[in-house]
Specification:
Helices cover 50% and strands 17% of the residues. The protein is built from 19 helices and 16 strands.
Amino acid sequence: MVKKGFAYFTLFLVAMIAVVPLVDVLFRSPASQLPSLWVRGLNFVAWSMVATFLLWRLETRKSLLSLARDLGIDTTRLPLERMLSRVLSEVERKNRSLSMNVLERRISSEKELSDTLEHVVELARQLLGAQSSELALYDPDTQLYHSSFVVGKPFRTSAQAMLSGAVEGRVEKSSPDVMVEPIAFAGSVLGSLRVALRSGEAPSQSDRQIMRLLALQSGLAIVNTRYTQQLIRLKAASEESIKAKTGFLANLSHELRGPLGIMLNAVELVLDGLCGSVTEEQAETLSMIRTNGEHLLELINDVLDYAKIESGKIVPHRSDILLHEILKDLCGVVRQQAEGKSHRLVYVPNDEALAISCDRRHFRQMMINLLTNAIKYTPDGGTIEVWAERIPGQKVRINVKDSGVGIEASERSKVFSAFERVENSYSLVQEGSGLGMPLTKRLAEVNGGQINFDSVPQQGSRFWLIFPSIQATSDMARGESEQPREERDAEGKGNTVLLVQRADDERGMVARYMNHIGFRIVLASNKLEALEALRNEPVDLIFLDNNVVDSPEDDLVKDIREGSPKNLPVILVTTRAFIFDIEKYLKGGIDRCLIKPVKLRELGTTCRQLIDGNFSGEVIDSAELELSKRQKRLKTPASKLLGVDDILH
């Protein structure tokens, strides 16, 4: 009010300055003292200000008229001040009608939707100055309305008839002072909004725009709720699907690892001469069986690793990796395979020390996949090159280039797709699960890296991994050498091992090997025999198979722990390779868990180290953080945790 009075006072003052000098000129008297030049200048300035003000007022009125037409306001014969007031009031109404912002709100429950629609109904009554407002939802199955929200006086006309009109695409005209707006989305009617104005008051175009905005907000709220609920259902279905797939693969692994372990261990026994002398031809045949069995194990492990990544079960445990050392070692791992196809495997060192941060086991697995693929898809006598280089963006690229068959542009999409195989005559005859590259891609992504390739058919391919670079330091620990180590039998030294295994053939095979390397074996096939053996004589280590501890009614490990010295080592060999299976064993008090198939030499070495108390493996896979936390809450000693290579063997 003060500002408005000041504006009028200023206008009056300018008018006086403009008019008074003019009067003085027209009616000048001899006594007038106003200088003629000063009067003319002042008069010009004042009239210029008046003209400017009038032009501004005219332009402002034009702008307000245009805005009023857009807003649906009738401004016929209204003065400028009232027109401005009405436009501002209408803008405020439109702003309030959009204030709910349902797009950014998560409306997932019926209670949240009900609160939102009630707010819409109340807002419609307030903004339109109505006597009453109603919102009803439409059920397409029954073609009836439901969940009606009413504010103010009840309507005299039928809401059902009103909604039927909305569904049929027409507006039910029950009364001139009643507005009906369908609530629809993508051509589907979701409900209807109805407002009764004061008796005899006709709705304006602006009122109808407000109705459309409120109906739109209501529709978005309903769609938001349904979309969120659908997402929740899809997520639950996806989780169930992943759980079912993981469970299926776990059971498949369980069924395959048992007989596969027996087969590989039996071959190992025969080749070691524990079943009599073996001719050169027999040894060659058995070696072929062992090679194919190990290949089958690799396929099983690929499927399991891919399922674990898909279900979010793998979390990387990053460490600083000096690329020169690990790449040189990895080339040594596959060199024999490359030489078997007369390939020339070349590692090109970089003058600069390059390092990255990545899970060491994951990096090894990625590089082995890339190298073995290069060897596999390159015909005999080819060349494979490996090198690392710094690239822009503070990143490092690790390259594996081959002179192989290459990949057609039309086949690119298959390279990183699970269970797919590039279709050319050479590639189709190669062995594999079709999971090597998809697994490598997912491992790179979970470690913050990227993988890609370029290829020319019949000339070769170049695959590369890209990771952020880190500063290489002089004291950066060198990873364990990837070169294969010479395997030697452990020495039993007469220590007593209680071997609890249900299957006679497998129990006898393990006992034969353990006796051969100097352990004294006590056999048991079930819980009763195992507890009886513990009561009769002291043992230095207990060896269990999961087929005697998986029975829900028998808590063998618990009974063993209660009746034995606390420091008595307990080792478990299991066909179950998933972490949720391993957790159960660890909670029961297992010191060491090995995943079948396990080499007999590894089994003997582990028993020797546990008895001597100098087991040197990692106590837990740091990638399984949740398991670690649970073990800490249970206050389980470190010696009860499994090793890194055991969970994901």
